[in-house]
């Protein structure tokens, strides 16, 4: 019999609804959640021996980087004890950040660590939590995978999609609200049209095999040093550079992450020119400045003149890495390295499928 470990962290999936189906800011207790799991999936006890713990219990909008570390430590302890897989029920708003963070904190995973959540609480009639949890458990116990994944449907009767932890984004408030960004999803739960059974269909086998081979060849390690001291800017027309500089000067960060427009451009003229910011950061603080896109696509900063100007004063494009993947990675990199050149090198190194390079 396989061993399944549940790391319950709260969120909507463990919340309660009022009569209008609005989620109220209360979480059911872990024991109640596990009792509900047993009630809704009575056959699960014949498939797996289940253990659980609750290192963090919050709605995900309140999750902090230190909570990522607490969850990672619990997952590491459970994986080291011989469990066959881990499912992490989690709130949806920041689940993609947690999935990415765990992908860096847990190196060389030999088992699947699967995050899931729901749009409606587990206890609510016709909740999508039934489908999401069922599919997450299926991937964990039957998927023959290793690494960090996010499994989610969001619709009561629609099978889930399997996303890589470093390549997923929440794109809407409801329904199928997660999407793999700059890559195909790892797979999906497919319903066989001639039966009522579901099976796992792998879509992005190349990416999955890359992750699995890397994990198989690496030592299983918990690298849980992080440093939250970063400064993040999402540019927009009229962004006040002077306020950003004042904020940076008041509490100097160790690195800056700049989210530019989709083609990797940003203002380089007038009082709001980002060139002032980058020149200040490079000359006064001597810290790295990394660049992601506001949506999908690859940031190379070699096409438009404004991009080239920003790159010339120190902006470092992160190519196809998402902001959700870059923020926890930058905090993690700062926890591993001290020198600027070492931080830059590690940020540009693919750790868990978060960044890809072409042949140019």
Give the H and E element order.
EEEHEHEHEEHEEEEEEHEEHEHEHEHH
Distance between the termini: 49 Å
**What form results from the Cα inertia axes?**
globular
Radius of gyration: 21 Å
Query: What's the total helix number?
Result: 10
Main sheet specs: 8 strands, mixed
Q: How many beta-strand elements?
A: 18
Round the mean pLDDT to the nearest integer and report it.
92
Which spans of ≥5 residues are poorly predicted at pLDDT below 50? none
What class would the helix/strand composition place it in? alpha/beta
β-sheet strand percentage = 15-25%
Largest beta sheet: strand ordering? 4-1-5-7-8-9-12-13
Helical content band: 25-40%
Describe this structure in words.
By secondary structure, the chain is of the alpha/beta class. Helices cover 32% and strands 22% of the residues. It has 10 helices and 18 strands. The chain has helices at residues 30-40, 65-80, 95-105, 129-142, 205-217, 241-250, 274-285, 305-312, 323-336, 340-347; strands spanning 2-7, 15-17, 23-27, 48-53, 85-89, 106-107, 112-116, 147-152, 161-164, 168-170, 178-180, 187-191, 198-202, 221-222, 230-234, 255-260, 289-293, 315-317. The strands form 5 sheets. An 8-stranded mixed β-sheet has the order 4-1-5-7-8-9-12-13, sandwiched between helices. Strands 15-16-17-18 form a 4-stranded parallel β-sheet, sandwiched between helices. A two-stranded antiparallel sheet has the order 2-3. Helix 2 crosses helix 3 (95-105) and helix 3 (95-105) runs parallel beside helix 9. The longest helix is centred in the first third of the chain and has 16 residues, at 65-80. The radius of gyration is 21 Å and the shape is globular. 46% of the residues are buried. The model has no long low-confidence stretch (mean pLDDT 92).
């Amino acid at each position: 019999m396989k061993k399944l470990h549940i790391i319950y962290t709260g969120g909507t999936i463990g919340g309660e609804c009022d009569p209008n189906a609005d989620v109220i800011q209360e979480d059911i207790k872990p024991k109640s959640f596990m009792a509900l799991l047993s009630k809704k999936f009575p056959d699960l006890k014949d498939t797996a021996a289940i253990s659980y713990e609750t290192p963090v219990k919050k709605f995900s909008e309140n999750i902090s980087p230190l909570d990522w570390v607490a969850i990672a430590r619990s997952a590491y302890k459970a994986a080291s004890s011989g469990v066959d897989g881990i499912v992490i029920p989690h709130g949806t708003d920041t689940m993609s950040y947690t999935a990415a963070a765990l992908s860096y904190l847990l190196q060389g995973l030999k088992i699947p660590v699967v995050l899931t959540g729901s749009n409606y609480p587990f206890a609510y009639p016709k909740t999508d939590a039934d489908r999401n949890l069922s599919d997450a458990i299926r991937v964990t116990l039957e998927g023959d995978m290793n690494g960090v994944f996010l499994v989610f449907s969001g619709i009561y009767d629609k099978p889930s999609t399997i996303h890589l932890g470093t390549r997923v984004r929440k794109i809407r408030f409801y329904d199928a609200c997660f999407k793999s960004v700059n890559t195909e999803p790892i797979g999906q739960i497919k319903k066989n049209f001639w039966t009522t059974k579901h099976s796992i269909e792998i879509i992005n086998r190349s990416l999955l095999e890359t992750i699995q081979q890397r994990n198989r060849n690496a030592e299983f390690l918990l690298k849980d040093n992080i440093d939250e001291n970063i400064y993040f800017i999402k540019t927009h027309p009229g962004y006040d550079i002077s306020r950003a500089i004042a904020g940076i000067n008041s509490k100097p960060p160790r690195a800056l992450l700049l989210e530019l427009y989709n083609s990797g451009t940003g203002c380089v003229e007038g009082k709001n020119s980002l060139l002032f910011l980058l020149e200040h950061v490079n000359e006064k603080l001597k810290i790295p400045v990394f660049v992601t896109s506001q949506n999908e696509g690859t940031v190379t900063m070699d096409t438009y003149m404004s991009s080239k100007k920003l790159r010339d004063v120190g902006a470092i494009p992160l190519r196809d890495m998402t902001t959700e993947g870059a923020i926890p990675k930058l905090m993690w990199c700062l926890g591993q390295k001290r020198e600027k050149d070492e931080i830059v090198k590690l940020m540009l190194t693919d750790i868990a499928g978060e960044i890809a390079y072409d042949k140019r």
